[in-house]
Amino acid sequence: MATRFLDPKEVKQIDIVEYLEKLGYQPEKIRNNDYWYLSPLRDEKEASFKVNRKLNLWYDHGLGKGGSIIDFGMLYYKCSIPAFIQKLSQSFSFHCNPKLLQQPEANAPQPDEALEPVIKVIAAKPITNPILCRYLSERKIPVAVAKKYCKEVYFELRGRRNFAIGFENNSGGFELRNSLFKGSSSPKDVTLINTSASNEVSVFEGFFSLLSYQTLQQNCADLTNFLVLNSLSFLEKSRPLMEQHDKINLYLDRDEAGMKNTQTALKWDKKYIDKSHLYKSCKDLNEYLVNKSVDQTRQNRFKRHL
Length: 306
Prior knowledge:
The protein is an alpha+beta fold. 31% of the residues lie in helices and 23% in strands. The chain is globular, with a radius of gyration of 21 Å.
């Protein structure tokens, strides 16, 4: 059976947020229906690419351009409308009206099997690159701490090679960060780090919060396991895993999305404890570490409340 191409009306029903996640992009912040990203269309350090999920439209403030998913696809792949629609029809499956999508043949490869990852990891090795070491230093993370949990990862994105600090998840995918890039390779998953036969788990939204935690506690013996969600969308899915522990310490971001998810978890069970008050004047643990220029006294005070 030949592939039936989606028409433009069907394509426009595809969730842009989910589409970006499949490309390896995660929002820097979420405010109501607005999802803010580091632009997938150019290099930048401050998120200025917005997706309104309710309207399912995007706008890049740096470029002064926006529109539907079709407008984005044409710029992202530098192709025509028919070429982009063909790419979607042959490779992707997204959350839109299921009646609109062609049912695959019984023996046909599933979309994810047929799709070559947009971010292709080429190599992963111990961190030595001076540019990445400088990036860690800017975020106040000792290289020795980062080496314990991360790798120096070389990857290819849209035909261009790059490198980043890579944090591996339980399924073999990597969260990738450098001073100009934030993304992830497939598959996307959480990262569970079992440090001991602990009955506690400390939960973080991103891996730089884990690295900041380790920096703040000054290499003391680990008395807790660690769970890095790598995306807030994994919080509820990770509930059975978290609740295998007697105590669940939440170190989620103090932005709107993080605090909302913290409040949701606190209602699930008394096991959940909100630890974000320790950095209440900052967005997350790393901002606390960077902006507060943490001295010995602050580190000791932080340790007493871990």
